[in-house]
Amino acid sequence: MAITDELSALRESTLADIAAADTTAALETVRVAVLGKSGTLTGYLRSMGSVPKEERAAVGKAVNEARAAVEEALGAAKARLEAAELDAAIDAAAVDVTLPGRAQQMGTRHLINAITDEISEIFLGLGYSVATGPEVETDWYNFTALNAPADHPSRSMQDTFYVRDLSGDTAAVRGESDVLLRTQTSGVQVHAMEDEELPIYVIAPGKVYRRDVADPSHLPQFTQVEGLVVDKNITFGDLKGTLEYFCKHMFGPDRKTRFRAHFFPFTEPSAEADVSCGVCGGTGHTHDGERCRMCKGTGWLEILGCGMVDPNVLEMSNIDPEVYSGFAFGVGVERVACLKYNVPDLRMLLEGDMRFLRQF
After folding, report:
1. What is the pTM assigned to this prediction?
2. What are the φ and ψ backbone dihedral angles of 210, each rounded to 5 degrees?
């Protein structure tokens, strides 16, 4: 077979392959097989030197015509296939405007932060200011200045995490270090009594740390809001009225409060405040007569500790207890959140389950 006949046959078969290609990838395969560095038509061009002189003109013309026809067919097919693939991609990505929209999920404040702000707003409305302090505190501010010296038994109730000395003394552990993660925000009250002018009306929200095992009613880290009032002629009646106002604004006007005698080293007299159970309405029983699981049948839920500031605490901050008196209280934010929304387990607030958190 003459070379021109071979070129004619190659041209026809290549045009047929181009017409049969149904994707740009398949079309590229045909192009490489014919016009690539090792392509069949390229091979003819490279072998022109071995063609007899009398046939060289005819063969060269046939090669160029075949190449031009193939390139033209490739260009047309590529434009056609790219347009088809673009249309297919647009169809696949098309949005059905008749479907309901997908709203962006909006974030909200965590319930613990929201309750902290709500407590702060209540006391700001009473004229209090918000004070803050370090989470890593010294023994003096966390215990001693609050009437709990080194040998005081109340320390065992709040045994906590002691911090090693930054100088690198690895022996600075419990009993040898006087730096610790605060167990209460009461240390902020001591700072306030030392630094601020009298009278003092402050609340101190913040994280505190204790060596408690996490269970439905305890956490090793939780958020506390403590309050302090130091002024002339402050009585226990002022404390009761303030906390009753707080409870009714936090839990609702129908909730009742009561005070039970208790002991705290930095207040005297001291009390624990309870609020009536919101699940059973303070009856201790559910509608079907069963004992209320939230309040364990008592009708009351413990909410905070409080009392009149011990004169020793005032004296250690250079405040004359013969002229000034005051009261203090401390409430756990997580506990308030659980009591307000009837959550049975404090740990649920920290597990990050969005199905639970989105309810608030």
Report:
1. 0.66
2. -145, 160
